[in-house]
Amino acid sequence: MYKRTILCLFSVRKPVEYGMGNEVSTYSDVYSYGILLLEMFTGKRPTDEMFKDSLNLHKFVQIALPELVDEICDPVLLQTKESSTRSNGSSNRNQVQDDQRQRVRKCLVIMARIGVACSADLPRERMDIGHVVDVLTASNQSYLLEFC
C-alpha cells in the first residue's frame, strides 16, 4: 500500500521547474491554480486513466476549447436553475433559459482558458496572476451587467 501511494504521488504532472532544479516561485503557484481550475472544470484529476502518453489535463482542455466546452466540462456546471419568474408562456421561459445557458457557457470558457493559460509547461508562458485577477474582475462585472 505504501509503494502504491508513493507511485501515485510521483505520477502527477508537476511544473517543469520541479524537474529542472529551478527554484519554486509564484509561477509554480500559478501552475497549481491552473490545474485546480481545470480539475474543477472537468471533474477529472491529472492522474485520471484517460491521461496517458502525451495527453494530459492541460492538453485535454486546450484542444477542446472553445467549441467543445459542453462536452468536456463537469455536467454539474451546465445545470441551470429554472427561472422563478412567471412569464406569459413557455416561449419566453425557454428564451430566458437559453440566455442563462449561454452566460454559463461563456463563463465556463473564460475559466477554462484561464486554467489552460496558468498551467502552461514553461513558467514564462503562464498567465501572470495579476492578469488573472483582472480577467476575473472584468468577467464578473460583465456578467453582472447582463442581469441589470
UniProtKB/TrEMBL annotation:
UniProt-listed InterPro entries: Kinase-like_dom_sf (IPR011009), LRR_receptor-like_kinase (IPR051564), Ser-Thr/Tyr_kinase_cat_dom (IPR001245)
Pfam family, one: PK_Tyr_Ser-Thr
SUPFAM superfamilies to which the protein is assigned, alphabetical: Protein kinase-like (PK-like)
A single GO molecular function term of this UniProt record: protein kinase activity
Domain Serine-threonine/tyrosine-protein kinase catalytic: residue ranges: 16-53
Cellular component, GO annotation: membrane
Name of protein: Serine-threonine/tyrosine-protein kinase catalytic domain-containing protein
